[in-house]
Amino acid sequence: MDWGIRNRLSRIILRNDNRALMLAVDHGYFLGPTEKLEVPKKTIAPLLKYCDSLMTTRGVQRTSVDPTYPIPIVLRVSGGSSIIGEDLSNEEITTSIKEAIRLNACAVAMSIFVGSKNEKQTVVNLGKLVNEAEEYGIPVLAVTAVGKEMARDARYLSLACRIAAEQGAHIVKTYYCDDFEKVVQSCPVPIIIAGGKKLPEKDALKLTYDALKAGASGVDMGRNIWQSENPVPMIKAVRAIVHQNYNVDEAWKLYIKLCNEKKSKPQKQNQVKSKSDRPNANNKNRPSANNKNRPSANNKNRPNANNKNRPNANNKNRPSANNKNRPSANNKNRPSANNKNRPSANNKNRPSANNKKN
Ligand code: 5RP
Question: Is pLDDT of 331 > 90?
């Protein structure tokens, strides 16, 4: 596979555990101001640091995502129909590859509607998008969209996922269903699941766990995170399943604990930033030239050449080739392919298809 594609993919499906936690906030492209995503900036900001990547549209990316925050973007590039229109499957590619490059996308995403009136149009769109995106080393995520009237069963979803992979999609996003192993096994590229409509939190955690156990590489979850009464505890609990091998009960306990902590500290969690917290000219805490706490050349805590704690060649704690604690190929604790404790497909403690723990 092309270096650029592999590099970008590794920012979406993380290389240490082959898992992905993508936060989906692209719903407005056909649903308009969806509940709890009315002001995308407000919804996204507190969750950004807990997801691996963000699935969004160019409009939301430009207006509502901090361009200086290093979050990999999976850019939805299809659209054209709305929830009140005649046919949701009537989609085209609306955002160009040039735009995806300008927006520094790590992948582009579009929907295919297998079995719909516009099946051919959307599948051909996918093939063309793969042709174009691959020229620039950009992976393509195909979403197997399901019309209201279609059954979300393993037979149908296997068909749709396989068709997406055959067209060259590098990742396929679909819905969880009974016998999900069959869907995963017959799709030669990684599968991630959408969360779907809002469920009670514990059910959404179970959905996540069951999908991973059946072989999914992760989630691209939206409503079950940001429509929760407690979006940050929820994304942290989902994250614990995806990246820390928590089972449903462990993740649920974590969720409850975080919610209780939030209740006991309402001020801190819910507080709207006061003026004095804002990095503006009148804020004494702003990192300015006159601020003693500013990381300047005269500040002993600044990571400079004279600072003993700086990670430099003479610092024993520096992650160097001679440092035993460095995550290197020879370090037994390193999360590598050869590390038995690594949460891999062969790790018995990982919620995988073969793990009977839960
Ligand atoms: C819509 C999408 C959404 O991103 C997808 O449905 C994921 O969000 P949710 O978890 O809310 O279902 O691709 O076509």
Answer: no
Instruction: Give yes or no: 173 in active site.
Output: yes
pTM over 0.85: no
CA dihedral sign of residues 150, 151, 154, 156: negative
Q: Give the number of other CB atoms < 10 A from CB of residue 350.
A: 19
| Rounded Cα gap, residues 58 and 78, in angstroms | 11
For ligand 1, atom 1, name the residue with the nearest CA.
27
How far apart are the C-alpha atoms of 105 and 350, rounded to whole Å? 30
Burial of 318 (0-12, 13-18, 19+ CB in 10 A): middle
Ligand 1, CB cutoff 6 Å, lining residues: 24, 26-27, 55, 111, 143, 145, 194-196, 220-224
Mind listing the pLDDT tens digit for each residue in 33-59?
Answer: 999 999 999 999 999 999 999 999 999
Task: Give the number of other Cβ atoms within 10 Å of residue 110's Cβ.
Answer: 28
Q: Where are the domains of the chain?
A: 3-264, 318-358
Q: Select from 90, 165, 105 the least CA-distant residue to 136.
A: 105
**What is the secondary structure of 340-358 as a DSSP string?**
TTS-STT-TTS--TT----
Residue nearest to atom 14 of ligand 1 (CA): 145
Cβ pair 219, 225 in contact under 8 A: no
Tell me the CATH architecture of domain 3-264. Alpha-Beta Barrel (3.20)
Ligand 1 center–CA 25 separation, angstroms: 8
Mean pLDDT of the chain: 81
The predicted-structure confidence for 179-238, as pLDDT tens digits, reads as follows 999 999 999 999 999 999 999 999 999 999 999 999 999 999 999 999 999 999 999 999
